[in-house]
Design brief:
heterotrimer; A mainly alpha; B alpha+beta; C mainly alpha; A: mainly alpha; two-stranded antiparallel ribbon; 18 helices; about 0% strand; B: alpha+beta; Cytochrome-c3 Hydrogenase, chain B; three-stranded antiparallel sheet; 8 strands
Chain lengths: ~450, ~375, ~190
């Protein structure tokens, strides 16, 4: 559907000179290369997306730059500070100042570092962070770049490659702190990616597709957000997502009070800022996935009704505008949550992180798959849900059933986690410490002899 | 303290004969609290062996003392434990007073106690700030600095300095409290419990905080005593020893306060002990303010200070533990020898016992919970 | 399927990239560089899968091999001392190895040529399911909400026709995991964690 719209808009909106330009280009290219492409196809699939990519890149880079400012401002509010306010009004030019500072700093490559890998690492990080932006559903119709049928899988795969940037950066520095950071992050990424993958599987039971636009459409056709059906899955995803983006309380790979700078200790200047940009882009990506999978993406219940009230000519534009706004608000809310978490919690320790990943999140995700599948089949047997052309259809009874069942499935999952972890040493530390010292608060030593 | 350890050893028990990594943490590490250098021998992330390399801040203070007149020495003490300059200053003037048998007027005693306890609060707040920062809680860091700022404002009004505060003189105080002193201290004491609750809300029930501190860096009461630990590291292990109670100085004997004691000797207990100590300090300050007598603040002191020949040891309870001073005098105007018992230095010796077998992250947490200050360790 | 146009261009680019990266994988001196070249090979192969319109396989390939297995490879390579670079990666068996490689290569080449000419080694008629799988192409005009045929057929095949091999493989992997954990845990660690 998306691609169709893209074609239509491309055909109608793209100026004629673009097509003629492409035709001229085709004439110049050898025939063997262009034999199975028409100039129209090329316009639709190559030229038009390229324009979109350019626009999107500009927007996202700006968003990422201002995300750093938001992080500093929000942290300042949390910590009763003012935050950056010297550069431009309200500190709005601070990202530019930061960027320029990093750009003109000396670029140090440590002696005895593996220069090729050292240079490659930030590039891998950044490329993987940015490629993913191509498949995100920012809004209906032409508001997203492309819609591929393995969208979600594509995002997962590419972000798993992005880890290599951190690992290789840490290794190539030929220094001890970065190496420790790289080791930590590789173990962390592998475990949390597994948890993310598994928790997404339970979401796929309802979405019936990998395509990001398809997931939004699935929620649109039902008129509900999947967070209602998949609350446990959402929680697992959110926790794993924070770990996946290497942010506090999971920022072990760069834990500044332990490993100085972690994997980017030896990076300076622009290479460092590339890592930085990649990290913040990953935040945007992860929040976009969460928004798409669980919060309806660009869809808000009632937006179709609003669009229907408008004259037909504006309908599409209004829908797009509303969609993009809703999507941004949802992403922003999740990003705010990330920032909030970072400035509230202390840092996990390496083994606790692994424990959380493997003994809490993984069993929770696995149990959730089983439970969600059971609930789904139960709903199907009860005749509450029908699958029509791959998209689910259900009446309000079905929605209520799945919502209630989704929230109720929290309890068996919690019971399972309790059973697994009850004997763990770190389970409910507070309860282990009921006898803590303040009981001795009343103890008074007899006052000694006053010195002469 | 620093002994040579072999740089690379093969551990035959590990599967791949994996090399143990030697990691030099510091002296430029963000969480070694200054210029401490800890040499870690790691098996993966687990600490196999550990050694502290100190002396990066050595200034030869004890040698300088021997060449200074008694009144000239006092400011040097402010620069030893620069976080708790008032306690250090108190230690010095009291030692000399003890050696000379000078009686300090009661008002000066009470003012000294108030200021020392305020200083204990500021030192503990700084400890809390950095300890939380080491474990990753950045927000507590700035919250604690907010309250420390209030104390430093009072200090600035009183001493004219914020860090190296110096107002105690042998025999009493240099000057009396400024007019608004009492009101300001009372205002701070009114505010403080709420702020303490704020920190505890962020930390006490926090799973991550508990996970990072409970059972980390455990030291038994026996070990703590045999290592000579004092202060919170000792009390956290369940030994109720506090110089203020054991051999009270100034007017502590007249004041009613409790000594919090831990049970498990881990980082979390040391944390709780210090948090409770802050409450007790506030209690002491309020009591002292209520009873603050009128009168002179400077006792009868000879023009030229000559300590009679002999030896004197005196100790006070600093924020970091027992601060001792051993004064040997030959009867002149300069000390023959002034030897300090620094609390941090001796507490740091426990790091090895506490941290071996734990992870790198725990080393940082344990260093934070020992509350060391390098100015005092290196002298 | 005959490759023409841009498909051919991409095919040759990816094939050459995969081949060269594969050669460098075995000839690079530094183990981490080997892993990097292996990653390049795997990504190029995933690109070839995309050309075959097996998007799911391509995605899974990158997710599992690059994101999972190779990251673990690197993890291990970083743990052991990778700095001791081998001066000569080839030992004295290199001539024998080269001979066998050439032999196998020639055999493969012959097999491919033979298959091309005769229309296949095994002249059995492909079953209806198999044809269905082979002919299942994602409909470019299909609505976005539909599961791609690729994913669905893979899933159905995996859990119906190939369920036994699938389960055997998973049990095998589980055994490998348990075994390696047992091997890797030394006495000291046992004492620490028990």
């Amino acid at each position: 559907m998306m691609i169709q719209w893209l074609w239509i808009t491309a055909l109608h909106v793209a100026p004629k000179w673009l097509e003629s330009l492409v035709e001229q280009l085709f004439a110049a290219l050898p025939v063997w290369l262009t034999s199975n492409l028409t100039p129209t196809d090329a316009t639709d699939f190559i030229v038009w997306p390229l324009l979109q990519i350019g626009v999107m890149l500009l927007i996202v880079l700006t968003v990422v730059a201002y995300l750093t400012l938001a992080e500093r401002k929000v942290s300042a509010w949390i910590q009763v500070r003012v935050g950056p306010n010297r550069t431009g009004p309200l500190g709005l030019l601070q990202p530019a100042a930061d960027g320029i500072k990093l750009l003109i700093k000396e670029d140090v490559i440590p002696f005895k570092a593996d220069k090729v890998v050292f240079t490659l690492a930030p590039i891998i990080s950044m490329v993987c962070a940015f490629i993913v932006l191509a498949v995100l559903p920012y809004g209906p119709h032409y508001a997203s770049i492309t819609n591929i049928n393995i969208g979600l899988l594509f995002i997962l795969s590419v972000s798993s490659v992005g880890v290599l940037g951190i690992i290789l950066g840490g290794w190539a520095s030929n220094s001890k702190y970065p190496l420790l950071g790289a080791l930590r992050s590789s173990a962390q990424m592998v475990s949390y990616e597994a948890a993310i993958g598994l928790t997404i599987v339970s979401a796929l039971i309802f979405t019936r597709t990998f395509s990001m636009q398809g997931i939004v459409e699935a929620q649109r056709s039902l008129g509900v957000w999947f967070i209602l059906f998949l609350f446990p899955s959402f929680i697992v995803f959110l926790v794993s997502a924070v770990a996946e983006t290497n942010r506090a309380p999971f920022d072990l790979a760069e834990a500044e009070s332990e490993l100085v700078g972690g994997f980017h200790t030896e990076y300076s200047g622009f290479r460092f800022s590339i890592f930085f940009i990649a990290e913040y882009t990953n935040m945007v990506v992860v929040s976009a996935i969460a928004a798409t999978l669980y919060l309806g993406g660009w869809y808000v219940p009632g937006m179709d009704w609003v669009a229907a009230q408008l004259p037909a000519a504006y309908r599409e534009a209004a829908l797009t505008l509303m969609g993009v706004t809703a999507f941004s608000i949802k992403c922003g809310a999740i990003l705010y949550l990330f920032i909030w978490m970072r400035w509230t919690f202390p840092r996990y320790r390496y083994d606790q992180l692994m424990e959380l990943g493997w003994k809490w999140l993984m069993p929770a995700a696995l149990a959730n798959i089983v439970l969600t599948a059971t609930i789904f089949i139960l709903g199907k047997e009860l005749g509450l849900v029908r699958s029509v052309k791959g998209v689910l259809e259900m009446a309000w009874q079905g929605k209520v059933f799945f919502t209630v069942a989704g929230f109720l499935s929290l309890f068996p999952i919690l019971a399972l986690l309790n059973a697994i972890n009850r004997n763990s040493r770190s389970f409910n530390l507070r309860a282990q410490r009921t006898t803590i010292p303040l009981s001795t608060r009343k103890v008074k030593l007899s006052p000694g002899v006053k010195p002469a | 303290m620093h002994t040579a350890i072999p740089l690379v050893t093969h551990h035959s028990e590990t599967l791949f004969d994996a090399e143990e990594m030697v990691l030099s943490m510091g002296p430029q590490h963000p969480s070694t609290h200054g210029v401490l250098r800890v040499i870690l021998k790691l098996d993966g992330e687990r600490v196999v062996d550990l050694d502290c390399d100190i002396g990066y801040l050595h200034r030869g203070a004890e040698k300088i003392f021997e060449n200074r007149l008694y009144p000239m020495i006092a400011p040097y003490f402010d620069r030893l434990d620069y976080i708790a300059a008032v306690s250090n200053g108190l230690l010095y003037v009291e030692t000399v007073e003890k050696a000379m048998g000078i009686e300090v007027p009661p008002r000066a005693q009470y003012l000294r106690v108030i200021l020392t306890e305020l200083n204990r609060l500021s030192s503990h707040l700084l400890w809390l700030a950095t300890h939380a920062l080491d474990i990753g809680g950045f927000t507590v860091f700035l919250y604690a600095f907010r309250e420390r700022e209030e104390i430093l404002k009072i200090f600035e009004n009183f001493f004219g300095a914020r860090l190296t505060c110096h107002a105690f003189r042998i025999g009493g105080m240099t000057y009396d409290a400024y007019p608004e002193f009492e009101a300001q201290v009372r205002a701070f004491c009114d505010l403080f419990p709420k702020r303490l609750e704020e920190y505890e809300t962020l930390l006490n029930e926090n799973r991550i905080w508990l996970g990072r501190t409970v059972g980390i860096g455990v030291i038994s009461a026996e070990d703590a005593i045999s290592l000579g630990l004092t202060g919170a590291p000792l009390r956290g292990s369940g030994v109720d020893y506090d110089v203020r109670k054991a051999s009270p100085y100034e007017c502590y004997a007249d004041l009613d306060f409790d000594i919090p004691i831990g049970e498990n000797g881990d980082t979390f207990d040391r944390y709780l002990v210090r948090m409770e100590e802050m409450r007790q300090s506030r209690r002491i300050i309020l009591q002292a303010l209520d009873r603050l007598p009128d009168g002179p603040v400077l006792g009868k002191v000879p023009k030229v200070i000559r300590v009679p020949a002999g030896e004197v040891y005196h100790s006070v309870e600093g924020p970091k533990g027992e601060l001792g001073l051993y004064l040997v005098s030959d009867g002149g105007t300069k000390p023959y020898r002034l030897r300090m018992r620094p609390a941090s230095f001796i507490n740091l010796a426990a790091l090895r016992k506490m941290a071996i077998g734990s992870l790198v992250s725990d080393v940082v947490a344990v260093i934070g919970s020992l509350d060391i200050v390098l100015g005092e360790i290196d002298r | 399927m005959l490759l023409v146009g841009w498909e051919a261009l991409f095919f040759w680019l990816l094939t050459l990239a995969a081949l060269f990266a594969a050669v460098f994988t075995v000839s690079a001196h530094n183990p981490v560089h080997c892993a990097l070249f292996l990653i390049s090979t795997l990504i190029a192969t995933a690109g070839l899968f995309l050309l075959l319109r097996a998007e799911f396989v391509a995605g899974a390939q990158i997710l599992v091999y690059v994101g999972g297995i190779l990251v673990l490879f690197l993890f291990v390579l970083m743990l052991v001392n990778t700095r001791s670079e081998v001066e000569n990666p080839f030992n004295r068996q290199d001539k024998v190895g080269a001979f066998i490689a050439v032999l196998v290569g020639l055999a493969l080449l012959g097999a491919v040529t033979y298959t091309q000419q005769r229309g296949g080694f095994f002249k059995t008629k492909p079953s209806a399911d198999r044809l269905a799988i082979e002919n299942a192409r994602p409909d470019p005009n299909a609505p976005a909400g539909v599961i791609s045929a690729d994913t669905e057929t893979l899933g159905v095949t995996l859990y119906t026709r190939a369920v036994l091999p699938f389960e055997i493989a998973s049990v095998l992997l589980l055994m490998a995991i348990v075994g390696s954990v047992l091997l890797a845990r030394d006495r000291r660690q046992e004492e620490t964690y028990d």
